[in-house]
Amino acid sequence: MPRLTVNGYEMDYAEAGSGEPLVLIHGSLNDQRYWAPQMEPLGARFRVLAPSLRHYWPERWDGVGDTFKIDQHVEDMAGFIAALGAGPVDVIGHSRGGHIAFRLAERHPALIRRLVLAEPGGELDESLGGASGGSGKQGQAFAEAAALLKAGNTEGAMRRFAEHTGGPGAWERRTATRKAINLDNAHTLLGQIDERRRPYGKAAAESIRVPTLLVNGAQTQPQFTTIIEALARVMPDTSRVVIPNAAHGMSSDNPADFNAAVLNFLA
């Protein structure tokens, strides 16, 4: 598997196709393998690169240390893109990876040509209609899942986290492949307790001026739709698509429609 040294870290990634770069950023409990349904279809038009973020598979992290932070992952992705030496690139981010992609476009606009935010995770601040200091539901879910993990109940931790993003029964509905990927990355939950993910704010959203596609699943949880709608109101250059027969994991729930929507936007 290819790798790049980024900020002193050996970052492994999957690659497919040729042409202009398209970088895919995975979300919580996932890694480069999450994007398997996208690699060949998107690789027919682009050089697709899907890195595993710091401390995710193939690393077997024990959850110890202070380097699992949103800001660290943003700067790692900036370093990864810069190391490609290919100028501004197209970026897709899903869930937590969507938050990272948002911050990447906010802080390093020269690196981004076009942006796809697939149900970016997080919360809204008061400027976008969120509660003062955030609702706390996200942090509570992270803490409860991490506590189960520390107690040795790994599957219970996965179930609690899956229900936060997908509602009751979300863990049971996942395929064996998705479950295996999540279990391989279980200890990254210990890092998410204190990842310091700031809520989305109006000023930050207004500063992102690259063309942006906002994507959500038709059957997703309300908190993700709320974020998409808030960003759509204030980001200067957005379009939106809803993927049918899909929930939060729309790129694996319905890859054919997800891939078609991305390719149409990037055409």
Summary, kept brief:
This protein is an alpha/beta fold and 267 residues long. The protein is built from twelve helices and eight strands.
Describe the structure.
The chain has helices at 36-43, 70-84, 96-107, 137-150, 154-166, 170-173, 176-184, 188-192, 202-207, 222-234, 250-253, 255-266; strands spanning 3-6, 9-16, 21-25, 47-51, 89-94, 112-118, 212-217, 238-243. With 267 residues, it is an alpha/beta fold. The chain has a single domain (3-130, 198-266), classed as 3-Layer(aba) Sandwich (Rossmann fold), CATH 3.40.50.1820. Strands 1-2-4-3-5-6-7-8 form an 8-stranded mixed sheet, with helices on both faces. Helix 4 runs antiparallel to helix 5 (154-166). The chain starts with a strand and ends with a helix. GO terms for molecular function: hydrolase activity. Keywords: Hydrolase. This is Alpha/beta hydrolase. Residues 21-254 form the AB hydrolase-1 domain.
Number of strand segments: 8
Radius of gyration: 17 Å
Number of helices: 12
Give the number of domains.
Answer: 1
Largest sheet: 8 strands, mixed
What value does the average pLDDT take? Answer: 95
Q: Identify the strand order in the major beta sheet.
A: 1-2-4-3-5-6-7-8
